[in-house]
Every structure is written in C-alpha cells, then in structure tokens.
Design a protein that fits this description.
Elements (H helix, E strand, L loop, with lengths): L3 E4 L11 H21 L8 E10 L8 E7 L1 H20 L3 H11 L15 E2 L2 H12 L15 H17 L7 H15 E8 L5 H9 L7 H15 L4 H9 L5 H4 L1 E4 L2 E4 H14 L8 H11 L5 H22 L8 H11 L6 H8 L8 H20 L7 H14 L5 H10 L11 H10 L2 H4 L2 H15 L20 E4 L17 H7 L6 E4 L5 H4 L9 H6 L5 H10 L6 H18 L23 H6 L8 E3 L9 E4 L5 E3 L2 E3 L2 H9 L5 H4 L10 H11 L10 H19 L13 E5 L5 E8 L4 E8 L4 H10 L1 H8 L4 E3 L7 E7 L10 H24 L3
Parallel strand pairs: 1-3, 1-4, 2-5
Antiparallel strand pairs: 2-3, 6-7, 8-9, 10-11, 11-12, 12-13, 14-15, 15-16, 16-18, 17-18
Length: about 850
Amino acid sequence: MQPQRLLVPLFQRPYVWNEEMQWEPLWKDLVRVADRVIQKPLEAQLPHFLGAVVLQQMQSQAGDLQQRTVIDGQQRLTTLQLLLDALHAELTQAGAAVPAARLRPLIANDEAFRRHKEDQFKVWPTNRDREAFNEVMAAPPPVDYAALTHGESRMARAHAFFAEEAREWLFAQGVDAVSSRADVLERCARELLQLVVIDLTPTENAQEIFETLNARGSVLTAADLIKNFVFQRMLEQGANVEEAYRRYWAQFESPFWEEEVNVGRFNYPRSSVFLNHWLISQTGEEVVAREVFTRFKAYVDFQAGSTMIELLREIDRAAGIYRSFIEKADILEGPLDRLGLFAYRLQTMESEVVKPVLLALLDRPVDPLPAEELGRSLDIIESWFVRRMLIRATAKSYNKLFAEVASLVKATPAKAMAAALQSFFTTQTAETNYWPDDEEVRNELTSLPAYRRLGRGRLRMVLESIEDDWRGWRRGQTSAAGVRIRRGTYAIEHVLPQSWHRHWPLSSGGVELERDARIHRLGNLTLLSKKLNSTLSNGPWHGANGKAAQLQLNDVLLLNSHLLKEFGATTWDESSIDQRTEKAISTILSIWRVPDGHKVATARASETPSINVEIQDLMLAGSLSAGQTLHSPRGKHSGHTAKVLADGCLEVAGVTYNSASLAGIAVRKQRTNGWYFWRLEPGSRRSLNDLRNEYLRSLGQDVVTDDDTGNRYVRFWTQFSEGLTSAAGPLKPHKPAPQNWTALAIGRTGFWLSLFASPREDRLAVELVIDRDLAKTRFAPLRDQAPEIEAALGFELEWEELPGSARSRLRTVRRESPIEDESQWPTYITWLVERANAMASVLRDRIRSLP
C-alpha cells in the first residue's frame, strides 16, 4: 500500500464495532480462508469481500503525504487496521519476521513520509477515538493491554481480541507448524481480504453521497446529520475543523446531550431535540422531528446570513442557555430564581413546546430582556399553561401556537415583550389556544376530582405552589420564611381517607354520594414528608394515632398547620372540604393571574351532566330481566353466578346484595367494581357496564364518566408512573395517556420497552421492541443469548421475530389480568414495574453493544 493517511472526519460516529457482531465474524472469515489455503495450497483462492468504503481525495502539495477523507466505511477501515497490527505483533513474537515485515506497510507509513508523529498511521480516527487508537497501535509487542491508559476502550479490546485469536491459531498445530501457518495467515490477510474502494475527486459532493449511503443504513439522528453537514462545509471552506469541533461541538457528545428524552410518543437524543427547538426559535416555524435536518440546511442556505463558524458559535451559545434552564428544573430545594421555578413547573407538565420560546426570550445577544421584563413574560406564559392544564383543555395545537409565539418574541423589542405576550394570549379565542378566565377555572376546580383527573406530578406542583404562596413567595415579594417548599418529593395525602367508612361516620342527614364526590377534590388533599401507612392514613380524625395528629407531625407545612388551626379542634367533613377547596382556588387564581377584566370570548363546549344508572333502570328499559343470570369473568374467579332479583338486587350463593359491586365483593373478597365484574354470558367480555352505556346513549347522553376507558388508562398509567419512580430503577416514566400502552426509553434509538394492559385479552405485557431497518439482524444476536438473558432476568421471555414486519420483539406476559378490576391495580403495577426494570437492567448494555 502506498504511503497515505485516511482521515476520519469529526462528523463521523466514534468506533462502535464489537466482538460479537463484527470482530469474531471477521476473524472466522479470515480463518476460513486460511484453512482453505492450507488444505489446497496449489489452487487459486477466491478473495473474501469485506464491503465497500468511500474516500475523497484531498489537495496536497508535492512531496507531502497523500491524504483522503473517509466518507463512509470508517468502522471497517479502523477494524482492519487493528486486525493487521495485532497480526503483526503476534507474528513478530512468534519469530515470523518476514511475514511480519510484509504486513508493516499496510499499517504504517515509511519514516521518509512523516512530517508529524501521527503521520505514521494509515488511518487517523475521529477525535473521540484518537488517544485509544494511537496508544494501542504504537504499543511495542508483546502488548501489555492491562497497562494501557485506554485498555478498556473498544480499540484496545479489539486489538487484544485479534491478538489472542491469532496466537491461538498460529500455535494450534504445535511450534513446528508456526512458520508455515504464519506465512498463510499473512498472505490471507494481505491478499485475500478485499475492500471495494470508491475514490472521489476533491470536487465531488461528499455530503450528498454520505446522506444517500446512510439513508439506507442505520438511522442517523438529526444531530448526526447536522454535524456532518456543518463540518463538511467547513472542511470545504478550509476552516480549522478540529479547533471548531473542540470549542463548539464536542459538548454534544457528552452524556447530558446523548441522553434520550421523550417527545410525544418517541425518544430522541437531547442534542437532536435541542437542535429542533433552536431551529424553531430561529425561524418561528413549526418543525417536526423528521424534518429537522432538511429545514436546517434550508435555514443555513437561505436565512441564516452567517458563516458556518458564526453559526456554530450561535448554536454553542444557545446550547449553554438550554442546558442551564433544564438543569435548573432539576433543583429540588434551596434558592431558585424565576426562570428556574418556571422551568420546574413546566417540566411537571411535561411541556417541550415552550422551550423554543424560552430560547427566543433568553438568547438575545442584542437587546437582552431585563430581569423584570423576563419575569413578567414568564408569568404570562406560565399562567396560560397552568390554567389550561387545570381545566384539562386540549393541547393538540400547542406546537403550531408556540412556534408563532417564538416568532413574536424574535420580532418584539425587549421593553415591550410582556405587553406583546399578554396581548397575544388574551386575544386567542379558539378552543385550542384561549387563556381560561377566573370564572371558568373556579367552576372547574370547585367540583373537580383533582386526585383522579390530574397527574400526580402536576397536582403536587399545584399544592407546592399554594404552600409557597402561603409562605409569602408571591409575585415581586420575598418570603419572610426564607425558604420554599422542597419540590417534587412530598407525598400527596387525602385528609378524609378514600376508605372512610370505618372511622368517619356520616353526620345526621349526610349522604354517602356527596362525601364520595369530595374525596378527591383539592380541599381534601395535602402534602406529607412521607406517605402514611394504610392504618394511619385511614384512621379517625381525632386520637393519638388520628389523622390530625399525623398532620401535626408535618405542621412545618402551612398546608397542614392552617388546616389544623381551622379544623383540628372540631371536625373534618364535607363542609370543611368545600371551604378549603374554595381557599385553594382563590390562591391558585392569585398565583396564576390573568389581566384585570379578562373574559374568555369562546369557551369550551359544555358537558352534559352524567346520570346515575341503577340495575333497576336497566330492568325498566328491558335490558335486564328478573331471574336473569350474570356470570363472573374467566380466570381466578370464574364459575360464580349472580341472579337478578325483581327489586334490582343481586343474589349470590343465596345472599342478597343491593348493588353489583357488593355482589362482586362477595365473590372476590376485596373491593370490586361490579359494573365491570359481572358478565352477561359465561366467558363473554360483554358486561353490565356495556348495558349501562347503551342505556345512557339511548337517553342522548355522552358516555363519559369517571370510569370511562380513557380516564381509566390515565389513572392506571399515572399510578404506574408513581410506582416506577418509587422503585428508583433504571427507567423513567413518561406522560400518562388515555391508551392501553405506554413506551419507555431504554437507552438507544430504535429500541424501547412497550407496556400493555390489554382489555381484549385480559393480560399485561412488557415488550422490548426492535424497530426499523436492522430489526432482524439486531434480534438474532439477542436471541442467541436467550439462555443467559432469561437466567439473569429470572423469568422466561417470548421471542418473536415477526417475519414480514419491520419490527421484532421479546416479551413477558401476565394473563388473567383484567384492567377493569381496579382493586388488582397494585398487583398489576408491581408486576409491570418489576418486569420492566429487570428487562432494562439486563438488556440495556447488550442493546448498546449491538451495531
């Protein structure tokens, strides 16, 4: 090979090949060719094809070492260099000096062509891999891998693997055969391993070729493509690419920026999400994830008006701002400025759409916002978000709306920012973007079962905000208490317990339904430093172990000390809950204000009041008849029946019950929703609840109740998220959605965990899903490890390659688990959390090692 240096550009990925998927197969291919030569030494041998590489010539002065840029195939070239150098070392150690000398020109340039130390190497890796590559390639034989500074790097491990395999093969037939086997191995490596090389001239468009080649290979992220585009342009312009990379891009290859974050239903590296948000902040246009790279190129070519190095500086500056407010959101106690509080509160609402607006507000090197103007602007945006969250307004057009807000921010002078934002939000009238007024928020929260309808993180944030307000942390004021409540850690507790029947008797004339309707309202909720056990939580109001005494232990919170001051000596009942709910609402309206006189021009469509349906109603409508038999669902409690009596009661095993739920409790011996439990036919999925919904529809009612399917799933996944967080395992929960599944990031694009609560099949499942082009090739090496994986998990998996599908999966299933049976949710959630965390712990490193 002629003296030359093949440069791997900064924008290429670091070295990722591994033993299982690439090193071992390559070595076996080489051995297969060598064995064939030994068996038939006089026959012409067919070469082994290693694939293709794409190089581009670089201009060089006469007498200089020829250089080419590696456009595609750097993983192959780097591995081949490690293999050849390891062979050279082992041949030298075995005394095969002549074969070793023949390999030397393939791995090192002659000293006459070296002007710099690094000129000795044929391949020059990307910055991230250079130190490890240089160290192991320059190490004299025998290589002491344990003494290498980068001995645990992939480079060193690859070199060690090939060296060990070569040594074993050379001596496999004894010392006397080493010389002849060395000649064969050297010849096969030098002559019979072949690459197809596409050699581009300096003027050909390498960027287009790179994009075309990688469009059909493993999926590159937006950050990968943008990095390649930026530095290829700089290379063509003769810029100092390495200096620019070190100063402005190296940060994006750190754990913070490589961490996958959830956006909608998908996971992306944070660097790609940031570039998406930065692009929106610059253009004021909605940019969907799949179009980030295309839109970035158009921005650079037609809008930016900057050189590439200037653009890199802008991105670097914005990245620092972006990271700052993300990290502030994770500060859970101690002082917090207005931006940090805003970031924390918006994080609890899982809102990514506001980040481009934050960038537009903060990244203003010319005409920066004064602190007071920034504070007023954040007040307006936060009020809009929180109020819409509290009334559970739709978020379906937020991406488009906040791209428009980013455009407004870019075009508005700093001193006029808050006024412009206020005018913008107060004039929105569509259902998808209006700013709820005081009357609507008050009406909604007065009867809202907040504990059920709001996610725990959001609800906790609201209660924390009330606590801070009562401590004196108000707009433009500093609390005399001096410290805010610790954020994100307190447990939400019901004052009047959910299981109140034993210790909280109704007062004379009290109605059970009215009490049940207040259990989950804001006025009945507080925060405790730790969750009470069920005995204390469900205990009476007064007494040594009563609820009031437990709250007294947490009276450092004004939420509790105010409650005890007003009601501790008397009683806590429906009237008390109503009073405290009203007080909480007034505080909320004060924290998240709207302009004086603000009224919504277009409110949401009003909801039809729900109707309480009894079994007797269904009998009068002809849907049920006296004497009809109902059946328990299949599974653990199958085989039980209930007889419908003439007065609407149900009879089970000779005992009469006045509701379907009590009849279900008689069978299951625990809390049961009888409308979902009792089926109309043996083995059927059609339940009493289906009849109830049909009856409601016949009256022109919308079938939307506390137990409707969407709400049930939101509540189920909310409780799952709490369990996952409490388990403190490797997984992070995502926003609960009204669907029967949720997805969790597992640390690599194209892989995720899907969790299902299937209503059709009454089963739960945790699946590792492998998506996109390489699903089948990535599935196979995992399946080959099935015994080891299942032994580490402690349970068996179902391995499904799914021929004909773009995906493959492996899963664990829990059958006979009807989601309608809410009394079993703790059991279901424990199973899901344990299985999901186990699969993440066992599979994550294996997945990351795949090509």
